[in-house]
């Protein structure tokens, strides 16, 4: 069965790879690392290596058996484009995503440079969305790599947002998610950082999704920004010939 997700912008998770390594500021308090160590302590076989990058070949075909269409976050516990994931394994995952056309797959990476380098050798069906994490202005170069990828929907996850991103580049971007860091030692987010990004998205007509304020007790902080929820998403319609068209929310 699919692993149901409490992440606000998706429905399920699929982890053909587990484990990762830290490459930037946003990785300092990685939630996936904390969870992996907890699952290892509980004796979960998939996390026998803790947070070391581990392929899970038996999980690759799982989405083909999930009949109900759903949004699927790919590798919530890893990064499909980590250097230790073989290219052939990545191709196998993309083949499954193409075949499981009833689902929408949200692939998120901190390594869009590798994704862009491999793009010409991968299948990019319309049900695959490609995103990059950008936690502050130091990593906007990831956006330049992301927009080189020939995919219908490109998105940014600005979570945890750790600083202002003046004039966020949005050309070629179809969706923006913003969220504060949560959990132990969570670093604070400032409302002005969020509002500037939201206002830029509104001006550029890019759907904006505010995920959370975060903090040590994120449920108390909630998700409202200026008195309302911001849950915009790219809308995709399917035509009679099976192709999909992206529409702005």
Structural features, described:
The protein is α/β, with parallel strands linked by helices and 249 residues long. It has one domain. It has helices at 31-41, 87-99, 112-118, 141-146, 191-204, 218-221; strands at residues 3-4, 12-14, 17-18, 54-55, 71-74, 104-109, 128-133, 153-158, 175-179, 208-212, 235-238, 244-247. Strands 1-2-5-6-7-8-9-10 form an 8-stranded mixed sheet. A two-stranded antiparallel ribbon has the order 3-4. A two-stranded antiparallel ribbon has the order 11-12.
Low-confidence stretches: none
Q: Please tell me the total number of domains.
A: 1
Distance between the termini: 30 Å
What is the averaged pLDDT score?
A: 94
The share of residues in extended strands comes to 15-25%
Biggest beta-sheet profile: 8 strands, mixed
Number of strands: 12
The largest sheet has its strands arranged as 1-2-5-6-7-8-9-10
Can you tell me the overall shape? Answer: globular
Structural class: alpha/beta
Can you give the helix content as a percent range? 10-25%
How many helices in DSSP terms? 6
User: How large, in whole angstroms, is the Cα Rg?
Assistant: 17 Å
Order of helices and strands: EEEHEEHEHEHEEHEHEE
């Amino acid at each position: 069965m699919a692993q149901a997700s409490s992440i606000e912008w998706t429905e399920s998770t699929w982890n053909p790879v587990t484990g990762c390594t830290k490459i930037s500021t946003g990785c300092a308090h990685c939630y996936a690392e904390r969870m992996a160590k907890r699952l290892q302590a509980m004796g979960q076989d998939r996390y026998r290596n803790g947070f070391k990058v581990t392929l899970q070949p038996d999980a690759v075909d799982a989405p083909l058996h999930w009949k109900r269409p759903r949004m699927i976050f790919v590798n919530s516990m890893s990064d499909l484009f980590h250097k230790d994931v073989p290219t052939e394994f990545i191709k196998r995952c993309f083949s499954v995503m193409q075949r499981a056309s009833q689902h929408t797959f949200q692939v998120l990476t901190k390594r869009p440079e590798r994704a862009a380098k491999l793009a010409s050798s991968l299948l990019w069906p319309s049900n695959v969305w490609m995103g990059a994490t950008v936690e502050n202005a130091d990593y906007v170069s990831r956006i330049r790599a992301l927009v080189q990828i020939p995919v219908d929907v490109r998105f940014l996850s600005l979570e945890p947002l750790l600083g202002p991103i003046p004039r966020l580049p949005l050309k070629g971007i179809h969706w923006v998610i913003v969220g504060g860091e949560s959990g132990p030692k969570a670093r604070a987010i400032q409302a002005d950082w969020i509002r500037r990004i939201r206002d830029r998205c509104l001006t550029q007509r890019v759907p904006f999704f505010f995920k959370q304020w975060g903090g040590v007790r994120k449920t108390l902080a909630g998700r409202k920004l200026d008195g309302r929820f911001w849950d915009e998403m790219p809308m995709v319609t399917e035509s009679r010939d099976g192709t999909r068209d992206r529409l702005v929310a």
